Each structure stands twice: as C-alpha cells, then as structure tokens.
Amino acid sequence: MTKICSKCKQSKQLESYHKKGGTRDGLRNECKECKKQYDIQYQITHQVKYQQYRNSHKEKSKEYQKQYNTRLKNLVFQHYENQCTGCRIKDTRLLQIDHINNDGAEHRRQLSPKTRGSSGAYFYLWIIKNNFPTNLQLLCANCHFLKTQGFFP
Ligand SMILES: [Zn+2]
Ligand SMILES: [Zn+2]
Fold it and tell me: What angle do CA 46, 49, 50 make, to 5 degrees?
C-alpha cells in the first residue's frame, strides 16, 4: 500500500507517514520527510521571531533603565541643590557625586558589588534610601579635579 504525499507528490509506503487521528486513513497527508522539513522550517522562523522579540524587548528595557536612572539622578541632584559645591556651576552634565571626606573608595567597598561606582541607579537608590547622607556633595569635573590635587578645602 502506498500513498501520495501532499507536499512532495511522491508515492510512498504507508510507513513513511505519521499517524494522525481524525483523518480518513488515520495518517498525515504529508510524508515523514516533509513533516520533518516543515518542523525545521517552523523552528527556524519561530526562533527568528523570538530573537526579534527579545531584541526589541531588550532595547525597550535599556531605554527604560536609562529613564529610571535619570529620574533617580535628578532626585538626588535636586537634593544636593543641583549645583557644584565649589564653583556653584549648575550644569548637571558636569556634576558628580563626591564624598566630602574622600572616603569614597572606602564607602564603595562597603556597598554590594552592584552598587559600586559613583553613578548608576543602585548608587542613587542607596543615597535616597540612606536619606541623602551629609558626607556627600556635588562637584563639577573641574572642582573635583582640583580637590583630588589638594587645591580644594
Ligand atoms: Zn513528502
Ligand atoms: Zn565646580
């Protein structure tokens, strides 16, 4: 007994077809070979779609993370008056969090690895949670440099 495959139009033995309930002969219309091809094709397109979905999702969450970061940063900067303690410049692009007693490195060691670094959401969150510690201040890049050179009170 043979059956013609609906896909490749070849006449094949019945063993070459997968069983399928609810059909007239209890078999699939396409042969095992064609079914396999179809499955592979399906997997590939499915994978590509999934990849695309993941990529677009990643982009979105990156964008979200950036906005979240900026919101936290603004909150922290506002508390420290949005200006450099040294020269009073009010350009937030230049401002950074500074440890007044130069204990930044020590402080960062105490923080979890995630919170290390003086920028980033975790650090800002830490500042907010700790009620804006008074040993922190904003300094612009220039004043920060002067301070590290010992020219700053
Ligand atoms: Zn076939
Ligand atoms: Zn300054």
Answer: 85
**How confident is the model over 104-131, as pLDDT tens digits?**
666 666 665 555 555 578 889 889 999 9
CA distances in angstroms from 126 to 35, 107, 111, 130, listed in the order given: 56, 11, 9, 6
pLDDT of residue 103: 72
Q: Which two tokens stand for residue 97?
A: 């969090």
Task: Fill in the amino acid letter for 96.
Answer: Q
Q: pLDDT tens across 24-77, in order?
A: 899 999 999 999 999 999 998 888 888 888 888 888 888 888 899 899 999 999
Render 61-130 in DSSP notation, one character per residue.
HHHHHHHHHHHHHHHHHHHTTTS-TTT----TTTEEEEETTS-HHHHHHHS-GGG-SSSSHHHHHHHHHT
Can you give the pTM of this predicted structure? Answer: 0.58
The ligand placed nearest to the CA atom of residue 12 is 1
What is the Å distance from ligand 1's center to 16 Cα? 9
All residues with CB under 5 Å from ion ligand 2: 84, 86-87, 140, 143
Distance between CA atoms of residues 111 and 100, nearest Å? 17
